[in-house]
Design a protein that fits this description.
The chain is mainly alpha-helical and 69 residues long. It has a two-stranded antiparallel sheet with strand order 1-2. A hairpin with a 2-residue loop joins strand 1 and strand 2. The chain is globular and about 30 Å long. The termini are far apart. The relative contact order is 0.24. The mean pLDDT is 89.
């Protein structure tokens, strides 16, 4: 969860809605999702999936950073 706050400070811009929806679909189907949180990193998924510079903590990641200009 600390990583989520750090990433938000570094780049507060949200990803496009389509990217957020795709990430949430992946997270909602993930075995590490429980009650809206990731059991690997502890992040609240509805927030983490909106950030440009966030990535899934699974190995390999199920989704990665999304950079916008």
């Amino acid at each position: 969860a600390k990583e989520t706050v750090t990433n938000l400070v570094r780049d507060p811009r949200p990803v496009p809605s389509a990217v957020h929806d795709e990430r949430m679909g992946v997270c909602n189907a993930c075995e590490y999702q429980k009650d809206g949180r990731c059991e690997l990193c502890g992040c609240i998924l509805v927030l983490k999936t909106k950030m440009n510079n966030a990535r899934c903590p699974a190995q390999p990641p199920k989704w990665v950073e999304h950079w916008t200009n």
